[in-house]
Amino acid sequence: MVPSETALNLLEDLAAALQADGPVTVGPMFRSPGLRTGNTIVAFLAHDGSLIVKLPRERAAGLVAAGAAEPVTMGRRTMREWVAVPAGNDSRKTRDNWTGLAREALLHVLGTLPAEEQALEQEHDQKDQQHKAGQDPEPDI
Q: What is the model's pTM?
């Protein structure tokens, strides 16, 4: 399924709105139109017309828990930092929602998140590395 003309127009609006936060270009990603900064993917349109964004892990989990987004699975792997945000019935509300989330995604990939969120991301990355190395980090309590 190809994203609708409305979704494509929203994507162009997002790119224009984010230019002040960093260079953003529109182009193909995973056979879908999306946003990138340099060579890094920020967001892209899913085949069903939802916006898939890369956010800090906790933020992504919070959106999923609140029912505002769905987790993204590629193959058998659930991508912890990627969520799919559906378009709503009101294109203005969808534009506002997607713009805010795309801005968060851009700041996340540029590494300009607030220090507290960066610290949480670093902590999780360290635990992932320990787990992969066969060292069991202390469980979160």
A: 0.75
Least confident span in 2-6, 65-69, 90-94, 129-133: 129-133
Residue 66: inside a domain? yes
- CA angle at residue 24 from 102 to 113, to 5 degrees? 50
Residue 140 maps to a domain: no
Cα(46)–Cα(83) distance, rounded to whole angstroms? 11
* Lookup: tokens for 106: 């851009």
Q: Is 139 part of any domain?
A: no
pLDDT digits (tens, 9 = 90+) for 13-70: 999 999 998 889 998 877 889 999 988 899 999 988 899 999 999 999 999 999 999 9
Torsion of CA 72, 55, 109, 7, to 10 degrees: 70
> How many domains does the structure of the chain reveal?
1
Of 109, 49, 110, 61, the residue nearest 85 (C-alpha): 49
